[in-house]
Write a structure and sequence with these properties.
Blueprint lengths: L3 E3 L3 H11 L5 H19 L5 E7 L4 E7 L4 E7 L6 H7 L4 E2 L1 E6 L6 E7 L8 E5 L2 E2 L3 H12 L5 E8 L1 H10 L4 E7 L2 E2 L5 E2 L5 H6 L3
Parallel strand pairs: 1-11, 4-5, 4-6, 4-8, 8-10, 9-10, 10-11
Antiparallel strand pairs: 2-3, 6-7, 12-13
Helix pairs in contact: 1-2, 2-3
Bound molecules: 1-O-pyrophosphono-5-O-phosphono-alpha-D-ribofuranose (PRP) and uracil.
Uracil binds next to helix 6.
InterPro entries: PRTase-like (IPR029057), PRTase_dom (IPR000836), Upp_B (IPR034332), UPRT (IPR005765), UPRTase/APRTase (IPR050054)
Pfam families: UPRTase
Organism: Asaccharospora irregularis DSM 2635
Length: about 210
């Protein structure tokens, strides 16, 4: 079974509480999401490979560690996933960024794909799929289906807030995908919204409704 990691560092919990508050506006919401994603990125990239290089400090020649350069790919699920890209790209500037457009039909709650542009060599990359919300899990399962159909074999899923139902759904269909979340909330309501959640992440990020 894939691993579920809850990145509940005090700074993340504090910032997430501000994001949940309905009185927090788009500017703060965006900035906090970037900050939290960077903090989560510390855990998400923990197993990244290192290699030794020779350098010369002002004092002596030595061997020191640098990233091996294994290729990373970041794929936000549009729209809300866009809010998590900068936080990871700030940490790993060489990562390539794909885009996957999915929206959740408000009646059926099923994901509908409307855009897909991925790095061409995703079979060689570790792919990090990002979306702030994991609710029913339908969007994440569909997005992982698309990544795998395009050749990806090494995928991590990073969400800000998850419902237990969404985690179970991803584990049911893709139990090779490790999941990183800042919070596992209580449940879904009758409209498929996460409770307590933070509302519609895309609308809050971009000021729409
Ligand atoms: C939201 C969210 C996820 C999805 C989660 O996107 O960003 O992609 O819903 O729900 P699920 O787990 O039940 O599939 P939405 O469809 O509202 O699109 P948006 O990002 O464009 O607002
Ligand atoms: N999508 C969101 O943006 N929020 C939820 O609570 C559920 C799905």
């Amino acid at each position: 079974m894939a691993k579920v990691t809850v990145t509940d560092h005090p700074l993340i919990q504090h910032k997430l509480t501000i994001m949940r508050d309905k009185n927090t506006g788009s500017k703060d919401f965006r900035e906090l999401l970037t900050e939290i994603t960077m903090l989560m990125g510390y855990e998400v990239t923990r197993d990244i490979q290192l290699t030794d290089i020779e350098i010369e400090t002002p004092v002596v020649k030595t061997t020191a560690k640098v990233l091996e350069g294994k290729k990373l790919g970041i794929v936000p699920i549009l729209r809300a996933g866009l809010g998590m890209v900068d936080g990871l790209v700030n940490l790993v500037p060489a990562a390539k960024v794909g885009h996957l457009g999915l929206y959740r039909d408000p009646e059926t709650l099923k994901p509908v794909e409307y855009y897909c542009k991925l790095p061409k060599d995703i079979e060689e990359r570790e792919m990090i799929l990002v979306d702030p919300m994991l609710a029913t899990g339908g969007s994440a399962v569909a997005a992982i289906d698309v990544l795998k159909a395009n050749g990806a074999t090494n995928i991590k899923l990073v969400n800000l807030v998850a419902a237990p139902e969404g985690i179970a759904e991803v584990q049911k269909y893709h139990n090779d995908v490790d999941i990183y979340v800042a919070s596992i909330d209580e449940k879904l309501n009758d409209h498929g919204y996460i409770v307590p959640g933070l509302g519609d992440a895309g609308d809050r990020l971009f000021g729409t409704k």
